[in-house]
Amino acid sequence: MKTVLAFGDSLTWGYNPETMLRHDFFDRWPNVVGKALGHRVRVISEGLNGRTTAFDDHMVSAERNGVKILPTLLASHQPLDGLVVMLGTNDLKRNTGGGRVFESRQGLERIVEIALGFPYQRGYRSPKILLVAPPPFCSTTEPDFSLLFGHAKDESIHFRSAVTKVAEEYGVAMFDAGEVCETSPIDGVHLDATNSRRLGEALVEPIRALLGSDDDQSA
Fold first, then answer.
1. Cis before residue 30, ω within 30 degrees of 0?
2. Residue from 204, 215, 207, 216 nearest 35 by CA
3. For an engineered disulfide with 133, which of 60, 95, 139, 163 has Cβ 3.0 to 4.6 Å away?
4. Full-prediction pTM beyond 0.90?
């Protein structure tokens, strides 16, 4: 069996913009992927609302800095064959990443460096990495989310180019979520159930390709 860690924020956790709770289990994109790939692949869903690539948020009780928590996750879930990272949305808050995709790109670079350079237990190697560019934001009239992300709607369009640059620099795979799904106008940043499932369905083949053949196991 191969193991994939889906590392992300509320889009991976499955935040439902309609209810402000969580999507049903099989509406969350990592579980859509896991179901499609079958019993030979285990997809671990590791999403957290508000998670950033590398920036602190001192107003919450849980650690949201992805760079700080990733080493623990790599250690606890090893051996990993694949790591799928979809982060960046929360970096565009002014109180965390500063509101620019440039800082998000730098944080994502650090995420990749940690995953590639982590001291895995002897006999295990670093997982193959797939970076997923978050979908661009859309306009919303929801007051809180408009205050949090409204300034960054145009900036979010640059996720694709930023994530592409990181993927090319480190020789890892890349997928643009904006090609297959779109954010909900209810809050401008999250995915409704249809779009969450659509993303999962679109990621099945890229993740299958990432993992390679059944004989390509961790050494």
1. no
2. 204
3. 163
4. yes
